[in-house]
Automatic annotation (TrEMBL):
<keyword id="KW-0812">Transmembrane</keyword>
<feature type="domain" description="Potassium channel">
    <location>
        <begin position="74"/>
        <end position="95"/>
    </location>
</feature>
<dbReference type="GO" id="GO:0005886">
    <property type="term" value="C:plasma membrane"/>
</dbReference>
<keyword id="KW-0813">Transport</keyword>
<keyword id="KW-1133">Transmembrane helix</keyword>
<keyword id="KW-0407">Ion channel</keyword>
<protein>
    <recommendedName>
        <fullName>Potassium channel domain-containing protein</fullName>
    </recommendedName>
</protein>
<keyword id="KW-0472">Membrane</keyword>
<keyword id="KW-0406">Ion transport</keyword>
<dbReference type="GO" id="GO:0015271">
    <property type="term" value="F:outward rectifier potassium channel activity"/>
</dbReference>
<dbReference type="Pfam" id="PF07885">
    <property type="entry name" value="Ion_trans_2"/>
</dbReference>
<dbReference type="InterPro" id="IPR013099">
    <property type="entry name" value="K_chnl_dom"/>
</dbReference>
<dbReference type="InterPro" id="IPR003280">
    <property type="entry name" value="2pore_dom_K_chnl"/>
</dbReference>
<dbReference type="GO" id="GO:0030322">
    <property type="term" value="P:stabilization of membrane potential"/>
</dbReference>
<dbReference type="GO" id="GO:0022841">
    <property type="term" value="F:potassium ion leak channel activity"/>
</dbReference>
Amino acid sequence: MKKQNVRTLTLIVSTFSYLLVGAAIFDALESNQEDKLRKQYQEEEVGMLAQFNITPTEYLELEDVVIKYQPHKAGAQWKFAGAFYFSLTVITTIGKYLNIVLLD
C-alpha cells in the first residue's frame, strides 16, 4: 500500500474512533440524567392528576400542547445516536473554524 493511502486510512479510522468514543462518553454522561428527569416528570404527572382531579384524557390533551413546544420532539437527545450526531457536529465545526483561521 502506498504511504498516502495508509495515512488516509489512518485518518479515517481515527476520526470514526473519535466519533464512537465521543458518542459513548456523551451517552454515559447524559442519558442517566435524562432518565432521572423522565422519572421525575412521571411522578409529577401522577401528582398533578391527583391534585387537580384531571382525567387521563384531559391530561393527554394538555400534554400534547406542551410537547409541541418541546425542542427535542424526536425523543431523548443524549442517547447514542444523538451523541454521535453531536460529536460529528463538533468535528465539522472545528474543521470549518480551522479552515477560516488558516485561510485568513
